[in-house]
Amino acid sequence: MFQTSYPVSGTGFHDRGAEMSRLVAFVEEVRAGSPRWLAVIGPRKVGKTSLIVELSRRSPDVDFVVVDTQETSPPSEEIFRTCALRVVDTLLGHELPSSLEILVATGGDLDAALHGSATFATLRPPLKASIRALGLRKLTNDLLRVYLDLPERLAEALDRRLVLAIDEFQELAVGARKTDVIRSSAAPGSATAASATSSRARAARCSRT
Predict the structure, then answer these.
(1) Which of 7, 13, 38, 87 has the most neighbouring CB atoms within 10 Å?
(2) Using an 8 Å Cβ cutoff, are 67 and 166 in contact?
(3) Higher pLDDT, 174 or 183
(4) Neighbours of 12 (CB within 10 A)
(5) Residue 197 counted as domain residue
(6) Which residue has the higher pLDDT, 28 or 172?
(7) Could you tell me which of 96, 24, 113, 86 has the C-alpha nearest to residue 61?
């Protein structure tokens, strides 16, 4: 019997050998410090999310962050803030008293939470400022660029391997504002070019549609 209502992993994951081999090769590139974009394309409920969840289980040395563009309705550029917040929570969360994503949603004090992180204290001032900027309410194009760059910059600063999986990635072109920031992130060709210019970093991006 196949489970279709939520992702499966471990003993619940079957077959998909060819697809998993390609994803494992993708992770090997991440480990080698060569990030790139990867799109996993298929009909709804075919098992794309399960592939990512199982890949995460098989790659304990790599950090995985998963975000669905349809978490907000209609999809909007707020998803970039969510991506950045989840990455910070993943990489620094063990030193934080509370999730930064929750603090931003509830109007909490980010500075107070970050103050107790020994790792945050070692970061360069521009990167600290970018993380603090996640609490700013009004989104601007400049802030969107900060949020887009933050996962890669933080992963590189901490020498961590990171896969950021964005579900329903194509919705960004529909629900978000038609700015240069959104177009360069949502268009597959542009995304490939962007990752090629960041080849020194140790982060990777994986989109699923």
Answers:
(1) 87
(2) yes
(3) 174
(4) 13
(5) yes
(6) 28
(7) 24
What residue numbers bound the domain in which 15 lies?
10-208
Q: Is residue 166 part of a domain?
A: yes
Asked whether residue 1 is domain-assigned, the answer is no
Please, what is the average pLDDT of the chain? 77
Q: Is the pLDDT of residue 6 over 80?
A: no
pLDDT computed for residue 84 by the predictor: 95
pLDDT single digits (tens) 181-200: 554 444 443 222 222 223 23
Domain count of the fold of the chain: 1
Model-level pTM? 0.77
Residue with more model confidence, 132 or 22: 132
* Strands across the sheet containing 203-208: 37-40, 203-208, 162-167, 63-68
Q: Which DSSP helix (H) or strand (E) runs through 29?
A: helix 17-31
3-state SS class at 45: coil
